TrEMBL record:
<feature type="transmembrane region" description="Helical">
    <location>
        <begin position="148"/>
        <end position="166"/>
    </location>
</feature>
<keyword id="KW-0472">Membrane</keyword>
<keyword id="KW-0812">Transmembrane</keyword>
<keyword id="KW-1133">Transmembrane helix</keyword>
<keyword id="KW-1003">Cell membrane</keyword>
<feature type="transmembrane region" description="Helical">
    <location>
        <begin position="29"/>
        <end position="52"/>
    </location>
</feature>
<feature type="transmembrane region" description="Helical">
    <location>
        <begin position="216"/>
        <end position="240"/>
    </location>
</feature>
<feature type="transmembrane region" description="Helical">
    <location>
        <begin position="282"/>
        <end position="307"/>
    </location>
</feature>
<dbReference type="InterPro" id="IPR022791">
    <property type="entry name" value="L-PG_synthase/AglD"/>
</dbReference>
<dbReference type="Pfam" id="PF03706">
    <property type="entry name" value="LPG_synthase_TM"/>
</dbReference>
<feature type="transmembrane region" description="Helical">
    <location>
        <begin position="64"/>
        <end position="83"/>
    </location>
</feature>
<feature type="transmembrane region" description="Helical">
    <location>
        <begin position="172"/>
        <end position="195"/>
    </location>
</feature>
<protein>
    <submittedName>
        <fullName>Flippase-like domain-containing protein</fullName>
    </submittedName>
</protein>
<dbReference type="GO" id="GO:0005886">
    <property type="term" value="C:plasma membrane"/>
</dbReference>
<feature type="transmembrane region" description="Helical">
    <location>
        <begin position="252"/>
        <end position="270"/>
    </location>
</feature>
Length: 325
């Protein structure tokens, strides 16, 4: 009996320890620390591989012409993203004017670019919009759908382009994307097969997605806006690549750029830095363009993007002043 009691006590202790560990792993502090460590680790690895000269070269390649082109392209991309958000939010009953959507989207992009993880700006956008319409839940849902569709279109475009023009990347990228989908899909299918509650939750998510996108015409419009966003960022990276002196034909640059942008969407980064530079060095090297050129182009791309998001900083500071007054 004493041994049995001791066994129950030990089991209870292990369960409590496991629960505390899971709770700690879900904390914002743990997630941010993980993102900083992983993103910073990638940067350290890139510096160890190519040195600091490519980063310096990218910074010194900044000029007025590159800034002007990047600002214009970023404005088009932000306008398209804001329209995508406005459309989906309107379908979900929490619509907002396009000009307001543009301002808030600029602000969220700015916050994403200076804060770790790359998603805190979207969380701020959801809360700000949700409070204005008295429905943070619906506002958050609109942003989740909007960002998810944008990511899906980006991945689809990358896979199509790589299939025709990026055979040197196709095997690795397809393997990575396949593994990522497996990590997301397989557990979901397994859980749905075992739990009626999970099946109800998945049906609810499906219905919300249908409600947000509406008809086939609505989906086509949202997909087209997402394609415009991707094209603008590919063009900004092309500007950066040309500015650092790496003259690459479009049919070679576009697949490289899409690989870099896929890596840039990985949330484990330091203000956008980390996986993007690692992927740029690797992709440029595989394409025969040199890892240093890729890191320099990625560095300049990051700087150009940050400059182009200056309106977001202005919106952020204006909002802070209004809150404090």
């Amino acid at each position: 009996m004493a041994a049995m009691t001791t066994g129950f006590a030990e089991t209870g202790t292990r369960e409590r320890t496991r629960t505390r560990r899971l709770a700690f792993a879900r904390t914002r502090w743990f997630r941010l620390t993980t993102q900083l460590v992983l993103g910073g680790g990638v940067l350290v690895a890139v510096v160890a591989r190519v040195g600091t000269k490519p980063f310096v070269h990218g910074l010194l390649s900044l000029d007025a012409r590159s800034i002007g082109g990047a600002v214009l392209l970023c404005a088009v991309a932000t306008g398209a993203s804001a329209w995508r958000w406005q459309f989906i939010a309107g379908r979900l009953g929490v619509g907002l004017p396009w000009t307001t959507a543009v301002a808030l989207y600029y602000r969220s992009q700015f916050l994403n670019s200076v804060l770790p993880g790359g998603v805190l700006g979207d969380a701020d956008r959801a809360v700000t919009h949700g409070r204005s319409v008295d429905s943070i839940g619906r506002a958050s849902r609109a942003i989740v759908i909007e960002r998810s569709v944008g990511q899906a279109v980006q991945v689809a475009l990358a896979l199509v382009v790589l299939a025709f023009f990026g055979r040197e990347f196709e095997g690795i990228v397809l393997a990575v994307v396949g593994a990522g989908l497996a990590v997301l899909v397989v557990p979901g299918i397994t859980a749905a097969a075992a739990s009626a509650r999970v099946r109800r939750a998945l049906r609810h998510e499906r219905d919300e997605l249908r409600a947000g996108l509406g008809t086939a015409a609505g989906f086509i419009g949202v997909a087209f806006a997402s394609a415009v966003v991707v094209a603008c960022h590919v063009a900004i990276l092309a500007i950066a690549t040309n500015a650092v002196g790496a003259h690459v034909p479009p049919d070679q640059l576009v697949p490289v750029a899409l690989v870099v942008l896929l890596a840039a969407s990985i949330p484990f980064n330091v203000g956008g830095w980390g996986p993007r530079e690692g992927a740029a060095g690797w992709a440029f090297a595989v394409a025969g363009l040199g890892a240093s050129a890729g890191v320099a182009a990625s560095t300049l791309y990051g700087v150009l993007t940050l400059i182009s998001l200056a309106p977001g900083a202005i919106v952020f500071m204006t909002h802070r002043k209004e809150e404090s007054s």
